[in-house]
Amino acid sequence: MFFGLFLILLVLQFNPYFAAIIAAGISFAISLLILDRQRDAISEQVAKKLARDSEGKYQDEQGEVEDAILESKEANQVDSKPDQSGKP
């Protein structure tokens, strides 16, 4: 959207610096009006992600799955290391 407005302003022989400022302002205003639903959806997702339970901990299901995977990898690495004491 910005580049389209910018090119139109350049074709109309605006100064490139002023054309960039005007195109940025108009693009920003239009995006505020048009992208309202997407912005609301993102803010709901962020609020859900940052929500805390009654204990003050984050409720992050994906994070719990990732932690379980990392813990299993760490356990596998510890089990697969050879004995360092030199005994067979």
Please state the overall shape, judged from the principal axes of the Cα atoms.
Answer: elongated
Distance between the termini: 69 Å
Query: What is the helix fraction of residues, given as a range?
Result: over 70%
Strand content: under 5%
Overall pLDDT metric: 81
- Gyration radius over CA: 27 Å
Present the secondary structure layout.
Elements: H1 2-11, H2 16-34, H3 36-49, H4 61-80
Question: Can you describe what's shown?
Answer:
- The protein is built from four helices and no strands.
- With 88 residues, it is an all-alpha fold.
- The chain has a domain at 2-31 and 51-80.
- Helix 1 (2-11) packs antiparallel against helix 2.
- The longest helix is centred in the C-terminal third of the chain and has 20 residues, at 61-80.
- The relative contact order is 0.06.
Summarize the model shown.
With 88 residues, this protein is mostly helical.
List keywords for this structure.
single chain; 88 residues; mainly alpha
